[in-house]
Design a protein that fits this description.
Blueprint lengths: L3 H6 L2 H23 L12 H14 L5 H7 L20 H12 L10 H18 L6 E5 L2 H16 L4 H4 L5 E6 L4 H9 L7 E4 L12 H10 L3 E8 L11 H11 L2 E5 L24 E5 H4 L7 E5 L3 H5 L33 H11 L2 H22 L4 E3 L7 E6 L6 H18 L5 E5 L2 E7 L7 H23 L1
Parallel strand pairs: 2-3, 2-4, 4-5, 5-6
Antiparallel strand pairs: 1-7, 6-7, 8-9, 9-11, 10-11
The structure holds pyridoxal-5'-phosphate.
Keywords: Aminotransferase, Decarboxylase, Lyase, Pyridoxal phosphate, Transferase
Family: Belongs to the group II decarboxylase family.
GO molecular function: transaminase activity
Length: 481
C-alpha cells in the first residue's frame, strides 16, 4: 500500500499554503466589490466559449489560476451594482461557517453525526419561531432551499389534513392546494411532484398589484369543490417572486380557518421582514399560519443554501416523513430534535445552522431589522426616481426590495417596447457594469431588480436609470432609421 498520495492530499502544510493564497484573493474580492472599485459585476461570456475554457483548463490550466478564474467568471453579488436575482451578498463571517461545515462534514442525519449542529439548529429554529409569533409547541428545521422547504411543508399539510393514509396507501381522491397565480413556480412543482396534477393547483387570480385577489377566494374554492377536488392547503406568498408583492396573510388566514385548511406562508424572500420594525406589518397574520418558509440565502445575508421551515406545531415536523398514519398525530409528544434526518428530505445535509447562529451571536437579530428596512426603503426611493422620469413605467409600486419597471416612449407598440427593453437588458448584461434581470407581466417585458446588496445606494440606482434611458433612446433612434 502506498499512502504517499493521501499524505500529500491531506498535508496540513499544503492546505495552509493554499488557503492563505485564497484568503488574500477573497479579501481583495470583498474589498474591490463592496467598495464598487471593481468596474464590473460580471464579465459576460457566451456559454459555449465558457464551456471551451473549462474543458481546456482541465488539461492546460495552471493550478494556481483555478480560484482567480472562478472568481473572475462568476457574477459578483457583493458589488453594489448587482441588482439581479434574489441571492444575498453573504456576510463574510458566513464564509467561515461554510468552510468549517465543509471540513467537519457532519451530515446531521443522526445526533452523533453532528451533536453541535443538531443543538444549534434547534436553538436557531426556536428563535425564528418566536419571532414569527408562534406561542408554544412550535418547532422547525433547516433544509436545502425554499423549493425543498415548500414541498416539505405541503407534504406536512397533506399528512395533517387528509385522513386517508396516503403515505402508505397512495391516493384515492383528487386533492388540491390554493395559491396565487403569481406564486413562485416551486409551489406548482411541489404539487406536481405530489401527484396532484394540474387540476390540483387552484390558482387564485392576482389583483393589479400582483398580490392574491382575496375577493375571489370563495369562488375559486367553490369551483374546485364542485369539480370534486378536496382542498387541503392554501399558500400565501410573502412576497411573490416576480414583483415582490405580499399577499394579504390576515385574510388568507381567516379563510383557511373557516375552511379548515392548512395555511402555509412562502416567505422564502421576504419572510425576513419579521425582523423589520418598519415593515413587519406586511406579514400581519403570519403568527396564525401552520408553517412558514424563510431563506437564509436571500434576505438574511447567508450563502446558498439554507432555508428555515417553521411549524406552529412541531408535531408536524416530526411526522411529515414518518410511516405513522395521521390519526396518530396527537399521540406523539416527545420532541425528537436530535434526529434531524427524520424531519428533512435530506439524509445528509450541510451544517447550515452555523450561518444563522453566528450572525445572531455576532451581530444580533437587529442586523436583519436594519438590512431589510434599508433595502425596502431603497426600493421606495428607486420608485420615486423612476416615476419622476417620463421614460419609465412601473409594473407596480414595490412592496419589498424587488422593483420592476420598463423604458417607455409614447407611440411605440407593446411589441416594440418589449424588444427595446430586451435589448437594453442584453446590452447591460454584455457590458457587465450592472447586473439586472427581466420578467414578463401581462405580456409586457419589464426590467427587474432585486436590491440585495447593503452597499447599493441611490447614486448607483440613478446611474442605472441614466444608463437605461440612454440605451432606450438609442434604441428608438435605431428603430426610426
Ligand atoms: C417566493 C419564493 N419561493 C421559493 C423560492 C425558491 O427558493 P430556493 O431558490 O431557495 O429554492 C423562491 C426563489 O426565488 C422565491 O422567490
Amino acid at each position: 500500500m502506498n499512502d504517499e498520495l493521501f499524505k500529500k492530499i491531506y498535508s496540513p502544510e499544503e492546505f495552509e499554503k493554499n488557503s492563505l493564497i485564497l484568503l488574500k484573493q477573497i479579501k481583495a474580492h470583498i474589498q474591490n466589490t463592496t467598495s464598487g472599485k471593481a468596474l464590473k459585476t460580471l464579465h459576460w461570456n457566451e456559454p459555449e466559449k465558457e464551456l471551451d475554457f473549462w474543458k481546456s483548463f482541465l488539461e492546460n490550466g495552471e493550478n494556481e489560476d483555478f480560484f482567480p478564474e472562478v472568481i473572475k467568471r462568476t457574477t459578483h453579488t457583493h458589488h453594489p451594482k448587482y441588482v439581479g436575482h434574489q441571492v444575498s451578498a453573504p456576510a463574510p463571517i458566513t464564509l467561515l461557517t461554510a468552510f468549517a461545515s465543509a471540513l467537519l462534514n457532519n451530515g446531521m442525519a443522526v445526533y452523533e453525526m453532528g451533536m453541535a449542529p443538531s443543538a444549534i439548529e434547534k436553538v436557531v429554529t426556536d428563535e425564528i419561531c418566536k419571532k414569527i409569533g408562534y406561542e408554544s409547541g412550535f418547532g422547525g428545521l433547516l433544509t436545502s432551499g425554499g423549493t425543498l422547504a415548500n414541498l416539505t411543508a405541503l407534504l406536512s399539510a397533506r399528512k395533517a389534513k387528509i385522513s386517508n393514509d396516503i403515505w402508505n396507501e397512495g391516493y384515492s381522491d383528487p386533492l388540491g392546494v390554493m395559491v396565487c397565480e403569481q406564486a413562485h413556480y416551486c409551489i406548482d412543482r411541489a404539487a406536481k411532484i405530489m401527484g396532484l396534477g394540474e387540476k390540483g393547483i387552484i390558482k387564485v387570480p392576482a389583483q393589479d398589484n400582483f398580490s392574491m385577489d382575496t375577493s375571489v377566494l370563495e369562488e375559486s374554492y367553490q369551483n374546485a369543490i364542485t369539480a370534486g377536488i378536496k382542498i387541503f392547503a392554501i399558500v400565501g406568498s410573502a412576497p411573490s417572486t416576480a414583483t415582490g408583492a405580499y399577499d394579504d396573510l390576515m385574510t388568507i388566514s381567516k379563510f383557511a380557518k373557516e375552511k379548515g385548511l392548512w395555511f402555509h406562508v412562502d416567505g422564502a424572500h421576504g419572510g425576513a421582514a419579521i425582523y423589520s420594525n418598519k415593515y413587519e406589518h406586511l406579514l400581519n397574520g403570519i403568527s396564525t399560519s401552520d408553517s412558514v418558509v424563510i431563506d437564509g440565502h436571500k434576505m438574511m445575508l447567508m450563502p446558498t443554501i439554507t432555508t428555515a421551515l417553521l411549524f406552529k406545531n412541531k408535531i408536524h415536523a416530526e411526522l411529515t416523513f414518518s410511516q405513522r398514519a395521521d390519526y396518530l398525530l396527537n399521540d406523539i409528544e416527545e420532541d425528537d430534535w436530535i434526529n434531524s434526518g427524520k424531519k428533512t428530505f435530506e439524509c445528509t445535509k450541510t451544517m447550515m445552522c452555523m450561518h444563522w447562529y453566528i450572525l445572531f451571536k455576532l451581530y444580533g437579530q437587529e442586523v436583519f431589522n436594519q438590512f431589510v428596512t434599508r433595502q425596502y426603503d431603497l426600493a421606495k426611493d428607486f420608485e420615486k426616481y423612476l416615476t419622476e422620469n417620463a421614460n419609465f413605467e412601473m409594473a407596480t409600486s414595490p412592496m419589498s426590495n424587488i422593483v420592476c419597471f420598463r423604458f417607455k416612449e409614447e407611440n411605440y407598440s407593446n411589441n416594440q417596447l418589449n424588444q427595446i427593453n430586451k435589448n437594453i437588458r442584453q446590452e447591460l448584461l454584455e457590458e457587465g457594469e450592472f447586473y439586472l434581470v427581466q420578467t414578463k407581466l401581462n405580456e409586457k417585458i419589464f426590467l427587474r431588480t432585486s436590491l440585495m446588496n447593503p452597499f447599493t445606494t441611490s447614486e448607483h440606482l440613478n446611474l442605472l436609470i441614466a444608463k437605461i434611458k440612454k440605451k432606450g433612446l438609442e434604441q428608438l433612434e435605431f428603430i426610426k432609421h
